[in-house]
Design goal:
Number of helices of chain B: 8
Shape of chain A: globular
Strand order of the largest sheet of chain B: 5-9-8-6-10
Number of helices of chain A: 13
CATH superfamily of the largest domain in chain B: Nucleoside phosphorylase domain
Largest interface: A-B, 40 and 34 residues
Distance between the termini of chain B: 47 Å
Oligomer: heterodimer
Chain lengths: 327, 289
């Protein structure tokens, strides 16, 4: 089922999707909000069979990242050509943020790129990083949307400007078909395999993600490794150690652009909503602490995990490539 | 108010399906197939129900406002739970034949105002879907490639607030087209159209029931919690805290039972504290898997 804003029916991205899904039912709407923001939606049930909504984004194409999100001291921005994700990760903040699990794809990529160009002009001479994959997965929908190919063509050759494609997807075909971009980081979100199997519903297994990482690295792409959120469980040290070893086995450390990690944290209202969606899941049965409206494992566990990860990752990569994400 | 009670648990009956249907002729095949009995006939909106199968049905009469009012009446009269599915079933005009085809409305538009609703999860493996316009008088022009009815928009305005949008369904069977005028519709024809789709309707019920059961499980308050809340005077804040820590405690200790006799001389805060301590102690060797 595809809902589309009538205004963008003739847009090339819409036409591409029409060709790819000739048997889908197409239902016209005025604006995506009339469907996406409706009251009394049930995120969990909707996630079983979400609809695709094709829309045009009109403003706020590029936004500054929340503090604590980026790497180092660069100027960091994010943009979201989609809302929501194909995957159904239990810890995902999107389930607490949106009332709808439907996918919104903003087809007017060109307006995102125009807005990014304006930011580059505004911050001329400064190093900028643009993050994709904050409100969605950057690549999971790529076969249908063709987003990555257009984004890479836009960013190709821009100096002092980096693009990060954050993903759990193994849909890397569009990347492997072209020469790697020196200013693009393909950043994979990862957890120990057993944890991912339990929490990352519908996402590719960790083995397949690691395999995709190695294919991209072998092809010359810069890789980001994102261990965010860190999940606490009884044998977490062994699990994370084994995960790092699996990833680094046969991977040239030179290909790693950066590694970041961050503790499991929720704004209080998001935690409540996520827990109400998965009341019987162990993730939401841990005695979390609440400080200043943020629900977390608490300082003691966070510090333990931070210290261990930093020390463990130092075995594989230099310290200046390791960052802690604190949002 | 309602004559229904669950003798065993002394709780209200648990209706899983609530049907809102305009005409008696549309409702009759369903009432018979699901063995529903008349339980209320003194108001504007007759109600039929079968407690054992979990079906309740209200006959709304024609029109969008009546549909909304009848749904509200049914909800209140039978104290319907918030995990129940709400289904508006009926006949509809369509721009093309054949008569008797069944559709799920994927978008319902109140023609007068343009207000749009998007009821239900798609049942695309079971039946095709179509856009539906709710009109205030019978549509004979079939100008657009949509279904036409006179109730669904009112139903869609109210029903999602009783459970959720994903458990609200509009199912229509084509009764008239440009080649088969609505003036030819008789009670007999209406019954026949619905009867011929009963098997499909039962398949749809089975699919929706899976979702209802899932929601029921998610939203139900365990009997242990209800017992404690009856026995002890929890403030609203403590009731929330108790339910939350009980949920965590039960996940941590699924085979344990919360024994009322252990807490007879306790204050609500002490009960909460005790559960918190047990959960915290268990967290030292926490396994999320």
């Amino acid at each position: 089922m595809i809902f589309f804003e009538e205004e963008i029916y003739e847009h090339p991205t819409t036409a591409r999707i029409r060709r790819a899904l000739p048997k889908a039912s197409w239902v016209p709407i005025d604006r995506y909000q009339e469907l996406f923001n409706k009251r009394h939606q049930n995120f969990k049930l909707q996630k079983k069979n979400p609809a695709l909504i094709l829309a045009k984004k009109h403003d706020n194409f590029v936004l500054p990242v929340p503090s604590g999100f980026g790497m180092g001291s660069h100027k960091n921005f994010y943009f979201s050509h989609m809302y929501n994700c194909l995957y159904d990760c239990k810890y995902c903040f999107l389930q607490g943020m949106y009332s709808s699990a439907n996918f919104v794809l903003f087809v007017n990529f060109e307006d995102f790129f125009r807005s990014i160009s304006e930011k580059i002009k505004e911050y001329k001479g400064q190093s900028l990083t643009f993050f994709s994959g904050y409100d969605c997965d950057s690549l999971a929908f790529d076969k249908l949307s063709g987003f990555a190919d257009q984004a890479l063509s836009f960013f190709n050759g821009l100096s002092n400007v980096e693009l990060e494609l954050r993903t759990k997807s193994i849909a890397i075909g569009s990347l492997l078909q072209r020469e790697p971009l020196s200013n693009c980081i393909v950043a994979f979100s990862l957890s120990p395999a057993q944890i991912a199997k339990s929490l990352d519903s519908k996402a590719p297994s960790i083995n397949r993600r690691i395999s995709a990482i190695k294919q991209l690295a072998d092809a010359g792409w810069k890789i980001g490794l994102r261990f965010d959120p860190l999940i606490y469980t009884s044998d977490w040290k062994e699990l994370y150690s084994a995960l790092f070893a699996d990833i680094m086995n046969g991977l040239d450390p030179e290909r790693i652009h950066s590694i970041s990690y961050g503790p499991l944290r929720f704004p209080k209202t998001m935690y409540k909503k996520a827990a109400s969606l998965h009341p019987e899941h162990k993730l939401f049965a841990f005695p979390m602490e609440e400080t200043n409206g943020v629900v977390s494992y608490g300082a003691k566990i966070e510090t333990q995990m931070h210290d261990f990860l930093k020390s463990e990752l130092n075995n594989y990569i230099s310290e200046n490539k390791i960052f802690q994400c604190t949002i | 108010m309602s004559e229904f009670t669950n003798a065993e648990s002394n709780m209200d009956p648990q209706f899983k399906f609530c049907w809102v249907i305009a005409l008696r002729a549309e409702a009759k095949p369903l009432i018979d197939a699901l063995k529903m009995k008349l339980v209320e006939n003194k108001s504007l909106f007759p109600i039929y129900a079968n407690e054992e199968t979990g079906h309740a049905l209200v006959i709304s009469g024609t029109g969008s406002i009546k549909s909304a009012a009848a749904a509200t009446f049914l909800k209140t009269y039978l104290k319907i739970n918030d995990y129940s599915a709400w289904i508006n079933l009926g006949i509809a005009g369509f721009f093309k034949g054949p008569i008797g085809d069944i559709y799920q409305a994927n978008k319902v538009v109140l023609k007068e105002s343009g207000a749009a609703f998007f009821p239900g999860l798609r049942l695309s493996k079971q039946i095709p879907s179509a856009i539906l316009f709710t009109v205030s008088k019978p549509e004979n022009g079939y100008k657009e490639k949509v279904l036409y009815d006179m109730e669904a928009a009112g139903f869609c305005e109210m029903a999602p607030s009783f459970s959720c949008n994903e458990l609200t369904y509009v199912i229509k069977i084509v009764s008239d087209t440009p080649n088969a005028s609505s003036s030819l519709i008789t009670k007999h024809l209406v019954r026949e159209l619905i009867e011929k789709q009963l098997s499909k309707i039962l398949d749809i019920i089975a699919e929706i029931e899976i979702l209802v059961e899932e929601e029921k499980k998610r939203l139900s308050i365990p009997n242990e919690v209800i017992e404690f809340e009856k026995r002890f005077k929890f403030t609203e804040t403590n009731k929330y805290k108790f339910r939350e820590i009980y949920r965590k405690w039960k996940v941590a200790f699924p085979s344990k039972k919360l024994d009322l006799s252990e807490f007879l001389n306790s204050q609500p805060k002490e009960i909460i504290l005790r559960l918190e301590k047990e959960v915290l102690f268990n967290a030292e060797d926490w396994n999320v898997l």
